[in-house]
Amino acid sequence: MKKYLIGFSVLFMLVSHITDAQTRTPLLPEKTSVPPVIDGILNDEIWKIAPEISGFRSFIPDFGKELPYNTIVKIAYDDENVYFAFKCYDNEPDKIRISMDARDKIVRDDWVCINLDSFNDQQTLYCFYANANGIQMDTRFAAGKEDLGMDFVWFSAGKVDSDGYTVEIKLPLKSIRFSNKEPLTMSAFFERYVSRLSTHVSFPELDPARGFAFFGQMQPMQFEGVKHYKLLEILPAATYSYKSEESAGKRITTENKPDAGITVKYGITSQMVLDATLNPDFSQVEADAGQIGVNLRHQLFYAEKRPFFQEGNENFQVGSSGSSLLDPVVSMVHTRNIVNPLVGVKLSGKIGVKNSVSLLYSADRVPGSETSMYGDYAHFPVFRYKRSLKDDGFLGLVATSVLKDNSFNYVYGADGNLRVNKSSLLEFHSLFSNTNDTASGINNKSGHALGISYHSEQRNIDYSITAKDISENFISQTGFIQRTGVTLFTGSLTPKFYPESKLFKRFDFGIFSGQLRDNIYDKWETYNSLSFASWLGGSIRASLKLNYSTEIFANEKFNTSGMQFLITGTLGTKINGSIIYSRRDAIYYSEPLQGYGNVFSGELRYLPFEKLHTQVNVTYQDLYNESDNNKLFDYLIARGRVTYQLNKYLFFRGIIEYDNFRESLKTDFLASFTYIPGTVFHIGYGNLYESKKWNGTEYYDSDRIREMKRGFFVKLSYLFRL
User: Band of the pLDDT at 281, cuts 50, 70, 90?
Assistant: First the structure.
C-alpha cells in the first residue's frame, strides 16, 4: 500500500507540473482618494469611472446559461481598502428573497459573493457573501472544503429598488492576508445566487469541461501602492456566568463567577500572523442543536464554533479525508477535542510565494476526575506545512500531539492534492501514529492511515475512486476518526442530463459501490447504491436513493439496506424547508441484533415579515427487533426557534427543544449585539426541565416537568485594531 501511494504520488505530481493554468488579462481597479459611502446607493463619483465587469453565466444547475437580467460588478481601491459594487438587475424585484437576519444566516436568500484568492496562488479563498440588505456571511475555502465558521471585519450595505438590488462592500486590507509583492495581484470569482431559480451565476464564466475547478479560472486583479500592514489587534473579553441545578430536592449553585481573558493578533508581515490568547472566553452563543445520541457506533460530531480555533482552521484540512460517505477519516485536527483551554498560540501564514505554515498550541485543563492519572493539563501542539504546486495542487506535512502525564499521542505524515488535468484531482495522505496511555492499557501502540482518491467533475459526468487502509491501532486524539482496522475501496459514477423542459432542469443518476474489509474479524462488508436526483422548476430539488449494504459488528454480518427520499425547496419568498425520510435495516449495537426502522428529519422556515424568523426542526428515529417486531426504542427531538432581528447589529432569539427519549425540555433566550466580529455584547438565559419528581429519597419518573438546571451569562468584548 505504501509503495502504491508513493509511486502514484510521484507520477501525478509530474503530470501536475505540466498542466498549465488558464491565464487572463489582469483587471485594473480604479484607485481613489475619495472612498465611496457604503450605503447601498451607487451615487459616488468613483462608481462613475471604476472599471466594471458583466457577462455572468450559470454553473448551477447547468453551465453557460444567461439570466434574463444583467449583473454588473465595479471595483475600486485606496491605500487601505478594496471596494466592490454589485448592481443586480431583476425584472421581478418583488420576488427577490430578502431578510434582515443575523450574520451567516443568509444562505437561503438572494445574495452576491466575492471569492477572493488574496495570494493569487490557487490554494485558499476568502469568501464574502452579502444579501440584498447587506447582511453578511463569510467563509474560508481550502483543500476542497469550505469552513463556514469564519468571521472577518468588513462592511456592506444593500438596497432593493425597482430595477433589482445593489450591494456595496468595503474590505479593509487589514482583514486579510496578502502578498508582499508590488504591484499586488489577487484574483476573484464573482458569484450571484437567485433563490427562486436555485441558480448560481458567475464571472468569469466556468468552463463545463473543468467542472467546479474554479481556481484556474479566476479573474486576476492588480493593485498598486497599497499599504502592507503589521497588524495589531487586541481583544479583551469579560464574562459572568451563573449556573444552578437541583440535587436531592434542593437547588444548589454550581457556578457563580466573573471571568476575563484577552486575545492578541499581531501581523508579523501582511502574510504572516501570530495569535495568542490567555484564559480565552470560548463560550458559545448558541448551544449545539440536539442530535440523536443512542445506538451509535462512534461518537457524535459537533462543528467548531469558537473564534480562536475557527480562524486558520482551513489550513489543517488533510488531502483525501472525508473522500466518500464511507470514509472513516473525517478530520485530523478536530479542535472540539480541546475542551477547556487555559492558553492558546497560533502562527499562520506564508513564507515566500509557495510555502505556507501553521502552528497551533493549546494547554487544555484536564477534568478534575482525571488529574490523578494525567496531571492538570493536556498539551496540544499541532504543525502544518504546505508547498503549493502548479494550479491548485499542493504537497503537505502534518504533525499533531496530545501530551499528558503518563500519556502521549503522536500523529505525523504527508498529504497532497495534485491537479491531474483540468477536471480531475488526485488526493492522498500517508499518516502514522504512536500512542502510550498506561491508564487505558495502551502501551506504545503504532498505527497508520493511508488513503488515495481520484475524482473528476464535468458538466455531463462526475466520477471518483478511493482506496483507504486504516490500521486497528491508528489513534488520533486531535482528530475525528469513525472507525479503524479497515481496508476500503469505493467508486462512484454520476451522469447528468439536461432536458429541454421548463419543469425539469436537470437529472442526476448516481451509482456508488464500496467494499470494506474489517481486518479485525477478517470479513468483508459492502455498500452499493443507486440514486436519482432532479431539479424541479426553479426552486425544488428531490432525490431518491436505494442501497444494498451490510456491516460487520462484533464478528457478525448485519443487513443495513434501505431507501432514502429527500425533497428541499422554497415557496415564494417566505417559506422554505426540507424533508429527509429513510426506511432501512440497521444494527442494534447494544445486544447486538438485527433490526429495522425509520429515520425522519424535517425543517421548516417561515418569515412572517423581513425581521421576524421562525424555524421548526424535527428529528425522529425508531428501531424494531427483526426477530419479534418489538420496538427497541423511538427517539424524537423537536426544536423551535424564533428570532427578531431589529437591525443588522441587534437580535433577540428564543429556542425551545424537546427530547422525548430523555423526557427533557430545554429553553434558551438570548439578546445579542454585534457591531463587528469581536465587538459584541451578549446576554443569555436558559433552563432544563425533566419529567422527574423527588420523593425525599430519590427522583422518579413523573407526568409533570420539573426545572432541574438553569443558567445565565453575560459577555462583553471589544476589538481594538491598531
Answer: low
Give the tens place of pLDDT for each residue, 329-347.
Answer: 999 998 889 988 999 999 9
Percent helix, strand and coil across the chain, each to the nearest 5 = 10, 60, 35
Burial class (CB in 10 A: 0-12, 13-18, 19+), 429: buried
* Amino acid (1-letter code) at residue 202: S
Give the other-Cβ count within 10 Å of 505's Cβ.
22
In sequence order, what are the beta bridge partners of 257?
241
Residues 6+ apart with CB under 8 A from 477: 337, 402, 409, 435
Report the relative pairing of strands 355-365 and 341-351 from DSSP bridges: antiparallel
Rounded distance between C-alpha atoms, residue 592 and residue 551, angstroms: 12
Give CA–CA dist 440/428, Å, rounded: 32
To the nearest 10°, report the CA torsion of 570, 571, 573, 574: -100
Confidence of residue 282 (pLDDT cuts 50, 70, 90): low
DSSP classification of residue 333: -
Per the CB < 8 A criterion, the answer to whether 578 and 586 are in contact is: no
For residues 443 and 460, give the distance between their C-alpha atoms in angstroms, rounded to a whole number. 52
Taking the domains of the chain in order of start, what are their residue ranges? 32-223, 301-497
Q: Determine whether 700 is exposed, middle or buried from the number of CB atoms within 10 Å of its CB (0-12, 13-18, 19+).
A: exposed
Pair 36, 168: CB distance under 8 Å: yes
* pLDDT at position 202: 96
- Single-letter residue type at 506: R
Burial 272-281 (b: 16+ CB within 10 A, else e): bbbbbbeebb
| Bridging pattern class, strands 81-89 and 164-172 | antiparallel
According to DSSP, residue 548 is labeled: E
Average pLDDT, the chain: 90
- Beta strands 71-77; 30-31: pairing state: parallel
- Alpha carbon distance 396, 383 (integer Å): 11
Distance of CA 360 to the CA centre of its chain: 20
Over its C-alpha atoms, the chain yields an Rg (Å, rounded) of: 26
What count of Cα atoms within 13 Å lies in the side-chain half-sphere of residue 10? 5
Give the single-character DSSP code of 343: E
C-alpha 31/C-alpha 77 separation (Å) is 5
Residue-wise pLDDT tens digits, 210-230: 888 888 899 999 999 998 877
Mean pLDDT score, 101-121 = 90
The total of other beta-carbon atoms located within 10 Å of residue 162's CB is 7
- pTM value is 0.85
CB 158 within 8 A of CB 145: no
Distance between CA atoms of 461 and 511, rounded to whole angstroms?
11
- 8 A C-beta contact, residue 365 and residue 342: yes
Residue 152, all three cell numbers:
472577518
pLDDT in tens, 509-554: 999 999 999 999 999 999 999 999 998 877 889 999 999 999 999 9
Distances (CA, A) of 534 to 43, 171, 567: 43, 38, 10
Q: DSSP letters along 254-319, please?
A: EEEEEEEEEEEEEEEETTEEEEEEES-----SSPPPP---SS-SSPPP-----HHHHTTGGGGPPT
Q: Which CATH class is domain 32-223?
A: mainly beta
Distance CA 526, CA 557 (A): 10
3-state secondary structure 11-32: HHHHHHHCCCCCCCCCECCEEC
